[in-house]
Amino acid sequence: MEKLLVINCGSSSLKYEVYAMPERMSLGKGLVERIGASVGNITQKSGNGVFETEEPLPDHDAAMALVKRALTDAGNGILKSIDEITGVGHRTVHGGEDYASSVIIDDDVIDAIIRNSDLAPLHNPANLTGIKAAIEMLPGVTQVAVFDTAFHQTLSPASYLYGLPRELYTKYKIRRYGFHGTSHRYVSSEAVKLMKRSPENTNVISCHLGNGASITAIKQGKSVETSMGFTPLEGLVMGTRSGDLDPAIILFLLDKGYSKEDINRMINKEGGLLGLSGISNDMRDIHKAADQGNVDAQETLEVFAHKIRQYIGAYSANMIKVDALIFTGGIGENDTRMRQRICRRLQNIGIVMDDEKNQSNGSRPGIVSRDYSPVTIIVMPTNEELQIAIDTYELISQEQQVNKGFMAEAIL
Ligand code: ADP
How wide is the angle at C-alpha 99 spanned by C-alphas 94 and 100, nearest 5°? Predict the structure, then answer.
């Protein structure tokens, strides 16, 4: 059994989880918050209990030292010694055009993460800080980068090029990258297993509907279309992001005297469900208001569902045959009414929901379509951390095989 540490490092927070592999068993997880503030805190939960504390955390090295203490705490820890960790997997946002799969981190990978920081200025530097702190804590242990963008590197130029002067692509690499790749990859492979099919002959449309939301078309195991674009802003109406816009709206607003910062705030933080409803970015609040007769909330629900249907329709048309439609993310996994609203108008393209199964299947992985539905509708809880552990385990196993090969050659 290998014990692997999965790290998702943001600018002021650090999420982590320990997995036993190949058993795919979570041994516990934790969250460090307010790194860089005067007082930070950690909460770790495992079968051994809860570890909680507050203390100054000036930087990520201090946060990582606290993670080590929590992991090895005598009473409530997860490990006896930090040396039990044999690999670390890092959620890394942007691999640009450099990586189409997960990779063992070396100097070239670090250079690529830095190079691609231009494309993810908030995320990549924070991810890198986590990587450096983990290397410091566990020198000599294999570290793996799992990129959000990597799964979508199989998109064809037809789906990743924008209708802009080509020099903007050659000069600045402005193109569709897509995000949520680790989640779409995980739920689609689990759905294919649930259907007892093989990826090579299965086409899937995966809807990740959380606070951030995106849809991906996966043809024979490969991402061929995805709704997020150059940044995660494009595509669906999300919790606070606008999703697709006529870009001329931005020019219009600039002419009207809105600043770049105002517009950035409106499209990223004050748009989406929050902006449209004027109530909340939380889908549960919008349902509640809609039930009480609030017309803005009712329209918001329909705008959200309408956009999703449009993407499902467009992606279906491009795939010829769709075998499964997957719902995941907080809304996709839990919101039975939204799933029903989306699917109600998709019967004409072979997506036929079983309303009873949809109600009763709650958040469990399960099939919620009629037996005769040409497209199987599946609710599949996502687990990006587990996918990162799986990738890390695979790369470590390959590395061990190669090392064994070298040893055998040396003996010969
Ligand atoms: P994130 O993208 O931040 O990981 P989540 O995947 O947790 O977000 O999804 C958050 C969204 O899921 C919120 O809009 C929340 O309202 C919605 N959600 C969670 N549970 C339910 C539920 N039972 N019914 C409707 N919406 C839900």
Answer: 110
> From the CB of 321, is ligand 1 less than 6 Å away?
no
| Residue 232 CB–ligand 1 contact under 6 Å | no
Rounded Cα distance, 28 and 393, in Å: 17
How far from 312 is each of 40, 148, 308, CA to CA, in Å?
Answer: 43, 21, 6
Residue 146 β-bridge partners: 91
CA distance 157 to 232: 19
Q: Quick check: CB of 212 below 6 Å from ligand 1?
A: yes
Question: Which residue has a Cα nearest atom 21 of ligand 1?
Answer: 334
CA distances from 388 to 1, 6, 100, 103 (A): 17, 7, 14, 11
- Say how far residue 60 (Cα) sits from the centre of its chain: 22
Rounded mean pLDDT, 236-243: 98
Q: CA–CA separation, 318 vs 215, rounded Å?
A: 14
Annotated active-site residue 111? The verdict is no
What is the distance, to the nearest Å, from the Cα of residue 51 to the centroid of all Cα atoms in its chain?
Answer: 27
The span from the CA of 17 to the CA of 146, in Å, is 15
Mind listing the pLDDT tens digit for each residue in 1-21? 899 999 999 989 999 999 999
Provide the sign of the torsion angle of the four alpha carbons 108, 17, 391, 208, taken in this order.
negative
Q: Could you give the angle at the alpha carbon of 70 between the alpha carbons of 69 and 72, nearest 5°? A: 65
Structure tokens at 72: 């090895």
**Which residue(s) pair with 377 in the sheet?**
325
Residue 62 sits at φ, ψ, to 5 deg, of -65, -40
For the chain, first and last CA: distance in Å? 29
pLDDT band at 412 (very low <50, low <70, confident <90, very high): low
Token pair of 259 as six digits? 């600043």
- Spatial neighbors of 146 by CB under 8 A, at least 6 apart, are 89, 90, 91, 92, 102, 182, 387, 388, 391, 392
Catalytic one of 148, 335, 354, 391:
148
Give the global pTM.
0.95
pLDDT tens by residue, 347-402: 999 999 999 999 986 557 899 999 999 999 999 999 999 999 999 999 999 988 88
CB atoms within 10 A of CB 211: 16
